[in-house]
Amino acid sequence: MRFLPTFLTRNWTLKLAAFTLAVLLWTLVRVEAPDRQAIPGVPVRVTVSDPEWIISSAPVPAQVQVGFMGPTRGLLRLAANPPVVEMIVERVSGQDTLLTIPSDAVRFPQDAGLTIESIEPASVQISVERKMSRLFPFHVAMVGTLDPSLAFVAHPVAAPSRGRVQGSASAVEQLQRIPLEEIDLSVVRESGRIATSVDFDAMTGFTVTPSDVEVEFRLEQAVDRVFESVPISVEGGAGLVADPATVGVTLHGAGSLVESINPADVRVLVRDPPFPVADTGVVLPVVVQGAPPLVTARATRNTVRVRTGRRIPGGTGR
Length: 318
Description:
The chain is mainly beta. It has helices at 6-9, 12-30, 72-80, 169-172, 255-259; strands at residues 35-48, 53-55, 63-70, 84-89, 96-100, 106-107, 115-120, 123-139, 142-143, 150-152, 157-159, 162-168, 178-179, 183-184, 192-197, 207-209, 212-217, 219-235, 240-243, 246-254, 267-271, 282-285, 287-289, 296-299, 303-308.
């Protein structure tokens, strides 16, 4: 062996043994006996392509156990790529349908060298309903507080005002409106439109078109208007008078709305108590009427004393 390099001939018997062992181990891996493993909790997903039907509830059962056979390294890959059952139903025969799960419906890494030995249970049941499509109004949701210097001229409205909802007939029939994502009023500074979208957390199981809308805000500078002495009427109270007989009223809202109010339309009432009024009278809350929507009305006092007999000029209300 003098023609061979020294690094090959030195301890050549040990090197030959190591090479032989490496070849043996490689051969053992190549002819590795297949292993088996059952994977529980494999989710089942079913979709219906029939345009007239929709799944109304989760499959029963919603999970199955799948038995795999193959090399250990392939089974280990399932930990990083969990299997899932996916089935598409093209034609529906009835509201309750039993589906047999074929092996090719199980999704897993195809290059892992695995085969499916079992699926337990071998079938699932789905419940379907007829699809329904209907128009509903969008509901504008708001949080926070508008800048105190501003006031609404009109209620915020969605544009478009309605959307089309598609879902199961029983679910659609229970709807009344389409909720939108909340808009924070603290960021609204002027009239205009703000983009928002459908609150799909509250619309699970539905398809809504369009899903993106705009909300229109009409704002003006807020103003106050004061009426110094508005007579107080005791509604339905024959022989009863309020003490004091008048009260001041402050109206607050958008300038154009507040200035358009006729003073004669603003009334202050006290409801007739459902019990006899003693000689000393009874303290009752006042109610301000005549303010249009989006305009608030506040009396200078929340209660007055109601007495029997004639009005008392300059009464104290005590």
